[in-house]
Design brief:
Layout: H1 2-15, H2 18-83, H3 86-89, H4 93-106, E1 110-117, E2 122-125, H5 142-150, E3 154-160, E4 167-177, E5 180-190, H6 191-199, E6 208-212, E7 218-220, H7 224-229, H8 237-243, E8 248-253, E9 259-267, E10 272-279, H9 280-283, H10 285-331, E11 334-336, H11 346-355, E12 359-361, H12 362-398, H13 408-425, E13 429-436, H14 439-446, H15 448-465, E14 472-477, E15 480-485, H16 490-507, E16 522-529, H17 537-553, E17 559-561
Parallel strand pairs: 16-17
Antiparallel strand pairs: 1-2, 1-5, 3-4, 4-5, 6-7, 6-10, 8-9, 9-10, 11-12, 13-15, 13-16, 14-15
Helix pairs in contact: 2-10, 10-11, 14-15, 15-16
């Protein structure tokens, strides 16, 4: 068997005509290199594009990091210098007020500058309005206690300034007098000016840059709400890298499953981290566009190349094909066929020789062509008939003979397939099991023909209610039906179950032996959950079936929801 499988391509090649062989060879030699070149172009361009995006984001992160380094290093140097001036060290409010006012005027991004004494009380401020802020204390500010504990510069998180009620980042510097901390010089850098540096950095339509502090909390972000909430971003991979004092780039998925290209830089002076990120799909959009353009060009070129190759092969093989055809007709006894003699070479001489022997084969060839045409027509006709029969058999094998709905066999296949898809995509799916209440007494009283009509009517009501093309309405067995609802939550399934109950009631199928009224009713059991672990679709059926049993026990004509 294996030997025959290896011999099959060789046999097929031998059966091809010379024209087809030449055309196939020419087409392969022309189209394959073209498609290979296209593929390699995609690969190299995609790689180059990715590297370009990564390098651009890295440079942006570097630029923002340098800006932050410069801003805070400048402010730290300024405060260290100011803290050593006689005016600040004097702890005289008037002298300190004037020094603070001059500093704020010189640096517009400083929104406030104050001095607090060793007890945390505000003793001087840039605007001199001490009467309004005498009760302000900085003991509850971590940056103030950090300065007292460490005796060095401290940088705060994003906070609301007590004096101006504006968001900003504080830089605090100890004021040393005779070797002890007499007070703390505090400046608040306006957050808006810092965020504008980040927001002004253009990444892409969906890309952006943000900054975290040494604890991973968001302190600069285009979304000011995240800054105000102090969102903890330490779980993000690029943030983890920056907190480890690393610089670089990586590719990761966020909580929504979006793949992002991120570059990050650690700012050593402030121990902050800068992250510049962009969705991978958006970054690679030019590659996708180029792929489509190149693909269209490649396919068009391949089609032209294939047509040209076939035409070249036809031209080369045409004289030989004519002679071969003449030989075949001669063997069949048809002598009416004539070969055109277009040259005086060996092929032309051979054609002339064949022309002398073709007349006897003419009529025989016509007869053979007629027979062949009839056979081909009959084969086509029989093939169409077989296809129609196969399609009908396939439809019958899936349909319930009474209601025309999907039968139990197709229900099992469909449920298994949708279950696997829901597990793969982690989507919720639902199943409604439906039982006609007191159907046996209906059959006994009205007869089996009326019972069949009843089942068909209920099946039609189910189909009219479950209108989505992705849903499946099936006859589960006897008077029991089932509705499979892919990508449907418990709430959605319950809403549909109520609609089914209303549709059956609207059908007004009279049942004088019913204990729930004068018309046919149905009981329903519902189950809906997302496949987890080793769950199987049988568990979904079991939960729905148990819920149906519970609905029957509760008096019928009701809906029960099963739990997993």
């Amino acid at each position: 068997m294996r030997k025959k499988s290896w011999q099959l391509p060789g046999l097929m090649w031998q059966r091809l005509s010379l024209r087809k062989k030449l055309g196939l060879v020419f087409a392969v030699l022309t189209v394959v290199p073209l498609l290979l070149t296209t593929f390699l172009t995609w690969q190299s361009y995609g790689k180059a594009m990715r590297e370009t995006v990564v390098e651009r984001n890295r440079q942006l992160a570097e630029q923002i990091g340098c800006d932050l380094e410069w801003v805070f290093a400048e402010k730290m140097r300024l405060l260290q210098m100011m803290a050593k001036t006689a005016a600040i060290r004097s702890m005289d409010a008037e002298r300190q007020n004037e020094a603070l006012r001059q500093m704020v005027l010189q640096y517009p991004d400083i929104q406030l500058a104050v001095v607090a004494d060793a007890q945390g009380r505000q003793v001087a401020r840039w605007d001199g309005q001490m009467d309004q802020t005498r009760n302000i204390s900085y003991w509850d500010r971590s940056y103030y206690t950090d300065v007292l504990n460490t005796g060095s510069t401290a940088i705060s998180d994003v906070l609301l300034a007590k004096s101006t009620q504006k968001m900003g980042i504080v830089v605090a510097e100890p004021i040393l007098v005779d070797g002890r901390i007499a007070g703390v010089l505090i400046v608040n850098i306006e957050l808006r000016s810092l965020v504008s540096r980040i927001g002004a950095t253009t990444v892409s339509d969906s890309g952006y840059a943000y900054v975290v502090n040494r604890y991973g909390r968001m302190i600069m972000h285009p979304d000011l709400g995240l800054i105000a909430e102090g969102v903890d971003a330490s779980a993000l991979r690029p943030v983890q890298e920056v907190l480890s004092e690393h610089n670089g780039s990586l590719e990761y998925e966020d909580a929504k499953g979006t793949t992002l290209l991120a570059s990050y830089r650690f700012v050593p002076t402030t121990r902050m981290g800068v992250v510049v990120q962009q969705p991978l799909l958006e970054a690679m959009e030019p590659v996708a566009v180029l792929k489509w353009v190149v693909l269209v060009i490649a396919l068009f070129s391949s089609a032209l190349a294939a047509v040209g190759a076939l035409e070249l092969a036809r031209t080369m093989a045409k004289p030989l094909v004519r002679i071969s055809e003449a030989t075949r007709r001669l063997a069949a006894g048809d002598l009416s066929f004539r070969l055109p003699v277009t040259s005086k070479d060996e092929i032309g001489q051979l054609a002339a020789n064949f022309n002398d022997m073709t007349e006897q084969l003419l009529h025989r060839d016509e007869a053979l062509n007629h027979i062949q045409g009839e056979l081909e027509r009959k084969v086509v006709l029989r093939t169409r008939e077989l296809q129609a029969l196969n399609e009908e058999l396939r439809r019958i094998s899936r349909a319930d003979g009474l209601t025309g709905l999907a039968n139990r066999r197709y229900f099992d296949e469909f449920l298994q397939r949708e279950w696997l898809r829901a597990r793969r995509k982690q989507e919720c799916m639902a199943l409604i099991m439906i039982d006609v209440d007191e159907f046996k007494s209906y059959n006994d009283y009205y007869g089996h023909l009326r019972g069949d009509d009843c089942l068909r009517c209920i099946g039609a009501a189910l189909v009219q209610t479950a209108k989505r093309s992705s849903d499946l309405v099936a006859r589960y067995g006897g008077e029991e039906f089932a509705v499979v609802l892919p990508t449907t939550t418990e709430e959605g399934a319950l809403e549909l179950a109520v609609q089914i109950q209303q549709a059956v009631a609207a059908a007004c199928i009279r049942h004088e032996r019913s204990h729930n009224g004068d018309f046919i009713t149905v009981s329903m059991g519902l189950a809906a959950f997302t496949p987890q672990g080793d769950d199987t679709c049988k568990e979904l059926v079991a939960v729905a079936d148990q819920a149906l049993y519970q609905a029957k026990r509760q008096g019928r004509n009701c809906i029960c929801v099963g739990s997993h």
